């Protein structure tokens, strides 16, 4: 047993580290599992393989088969049994292997998971996290590149979030696990291999038991201004944040100042942060990969129009997927909101 | 030359009565078969079961009347299923957990749910109605077949809590989940069987085959007896006469003991009959015969136990008179308390959507309050 403990401590990095997005989530999961013995992971191929994207890499070795559970290939079964485990006091974190495979679990998520707290008039909580690698840009086959987040944001009772950087992912996954509410955690898979600085805090053996601060759930509720600007507010989240930041660099070179807001969550939607920005800039563009029809951009546009009507210099514009099935991989770069399409929308809003 | 079988093995279809465990004949005679669980039932315990069945039926009839009077939006009757529910319910111990569908009123009453609380859902004043953790009887699940997965997950939690197979009968726990013949066609029920099997979860999967899924007979769900499916998943199964309270108790007690002892899941098919309609919105005269209903009325589960106890001299008139009084009192209480259930305050619809603050819900609640208040202002102004 001593050997195991030593290996664990040695294996767990601390302090500020440059990590990939995927590794940041791995270490966030690890931190949550080390802090709370009720946290367990469930999913397909997440054990010895470490998940198809290796996000659970090493956790099976460290925490064992009872806490890193390779499940039967049945998404509804994964979420349904996670609900039962949550009712028994556990905090299950389910991995849905790919965005397009979440639909067999749709019923359990929307009719059961989302409603038990409400139906029990607050007596029951079901703190289940559902991790979903989502979005396109990796040249995948059908059903492996989709952005279904709005389908869940439309369901009261669910929190729907998406991190945009390794540091955010590390913090947000821990906040999601600590939340008493069910959380859909959409991971932009195109960013899994991108690196960034992550503050992992003290090493295991330097942490004082009981003094571990609870993750700040503001990261599940509040948008953040990633880049301040003055001319146009560009609102986005998840994998599109990096695209928009590049667009902001390009726009700056031409003398246009973009303020970039990362929503973090689309349920709840932090309209206040966006409205405060739009009142300053007078212009707003919303960017996401999901189809724009009835999308989160439509919701932002409606709310901003309502709250900032007299400050707007132009209609709120949306850049996103088309109302087509996700196209074949060879066409995805024309489908996805690219730097050029973001700049085109910026130009159009400035032309009003 | 093919090695494939060209047909199914001979079978009688899903409604066969072959192979049913029966310890009490429809005439109320004890079958000469020794069973440790059944043999341990003394007259007091059997009278308690009889009482629970009588009260469950009385409650059911009162609820139907209340619906007809417009006091309930809907009622799902369990008439005819009292033995299946009360017999199995008596096998559940305090430390066990029950995941019902929406027709397990008899099980709920045995667990200690106030039947009045069951009617909150059907009156439209609550989506739940009782403290499910206090009585270890989960809230009803209206999506057919969604909850057996919750039961299996809960059982996986019991395993991780070290409450299965320790040999301590006072602590070892199990889960029982109830569903109907129709729900066995759902993917979720089949996934529950898979998860229960591979995890050897301490779960009893209790199917009340009441022969009707609204208007569809069991023959629209299966070609073979429902219980025959479970062994294909690696789960042992048993068919029991669900109108025989003693046999139902005995097989359920054995299955729960196996689960508590770490022996894994068991599938029970209790073969019974839905004497009433699916719900008060249903009209069984459109799809089944009077003759079939009469046939099953003659196999009434309450009459069967009554005949047995009377023949044994164990149902004295004073007991029956007291029980009749208790049933009348229950009926009176149900009628009074249901009629007194108030409409909840309108803004309560915003409560408990989330366990932590949610800006959208909070904003809508405030806007709704302003909207409501605007009428108050107008009324004040007109005074």
Task: Provide structural commentary.
The complex is a heterodimer of chains A (about 350) and B (about 375). With about 350 residues, chain A is α/β, with parallel strands linked by helices. Chain A folds into two domains: about 5-220, Rossmann fold (3-Layer(aba) Sandwich); about 220-350, Rossmann fold. Helix content of chain A is about 35%, strand content about 20%. Chain A has 13 helices and 14 strands. Chain A has helices at about 1-10, 20-35, 60-65, 75-85, 105-115, 115-120, 150-155, 165-180, 240-255, 270-280, 295-305, 330-335, 340-350; strands at about 15-20, 40-45, 70, 90-95, 130-135, 160, 185-190, 195-200, 225, 230-235, 260, 265, 285-290, 315-320. Chain A has a seven-stranded mixed β-sheet with strand order 3-2-4-5-7-6-12, with helices on both faces. In chain A, α4 (about 75-85) packs parallel to α5 (about 105-115) and α9 crosses α13 (about 340-350). Chain B folds into two domains: about 35-340, Rossmann fold (3-Layer(aba) Sandwich); about 350-380. Helices cover about 45% and strands about 10% of the residues of chain B. Chain B has helices spanning about 35-40, 45-70, 80-90, 105-110, 115-125, 130-135, 150-160, 185-200, 230-235, 245-260, 290-295, 300-310, 315-340, 360-380, and strands at about 95-100, 175-180, 205-210, 210-215, 215, 235-240, 265-270. In chain B, the strands form two sheets. A five-stranded parallel β-sheet of chain B has the order 1-2-3-7-6, sandwiched between helices. A two-stranded antiparallel sheet of chain B has the order 4-5. At the A-B interface, α4, α5 and α6 of A face α7, α8 and α14 of B.
